[in-house]
Amino acid sequence: MLSVANLNVFYGQSHVIHDVSLEVPSGGAVALVGRNGMGKSTLLKSIIGMVDSRDGSIALDEVELSRQPSYKRVRAGLAFVPQGRMIFPQLTVEENLLTGLETARYSRIPDFIYEFFPVLAEMSQRKGGNLSGGQQQQIAIARALVSKPSLLILDEPTEGIQPSIIKEIAKSLVALRKELGIALLVSEQVLSFALELADRLLVIDGGRLVRETNRDEVDLDEVRSFLTV
Ligand SMILES: Nc1ncnc2c1ncn2[C@@H]1O[C@H](COP(=O)(O)OP(=O)(O)OP(=O)(O)O)[C@@H](O)[C@H]1O
Ligand SMILES: [Mg+2]
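A: This is the predicted complex of the input protein with adenosine-5'-triphosphate.
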């Protein structure tokens, strides 16, 4: 289980994340929704350790990680797919996946990766930059998975991706969770995608969690009101 408690994040003098607490149960799935600039990326980056949090706690299975560098958080079981699918366009698919092993405890790409993303096996020797946006997103997800995380954190995985591919990505994430027990923490602006994946929905507004609800109890009109400008 991931437990985040009373997290605050500043950019210089600017207080961006305000006293955020959240939990992702082992094998669970939580979606974080909110408009542009509300603090989704900042919160997720602070959990993986790409930006510093000033105080509060980030614990995975009761191991405190908030003062650990990112690579140690990855070794502890967290993995992160950043916003904008940052892959290496000049490297092949396989080479892109190998870069994910730098912070992992393993030296080869685990077999389940190609089982989950067969298209990446077919295209393993092609340059990442020549693949479609949806396929590049699969590379980015697969690269994060090579460390065999217990919790995968994804920052707006559907951004700039066509609707048919969004469905495929949702399917593979649901399968990852079901078959491998990998927990998910996903930021999103596409509400249908968030609800397809997650058991629980958190709404972030101005760097604060303003609503938390189980999927079955979600008040769609209210959540939508936080997502529209
Ligand atoms: N490196 C930075 N330095 C200073 N301020 C930043 C930095 N990155 C983000 N911010 C500010 O912090 C706030 C939260 O930004 P963040 O990127 O976390 O939002 P977001 O919810 O991920 O938005 P989007 O949906 O557009 O990705 C915004 O006001 C943004 O301008
Ligand atoms: Mg963002």
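The chain has nine helices and ten strands. The radius of gyration is 17 Å.
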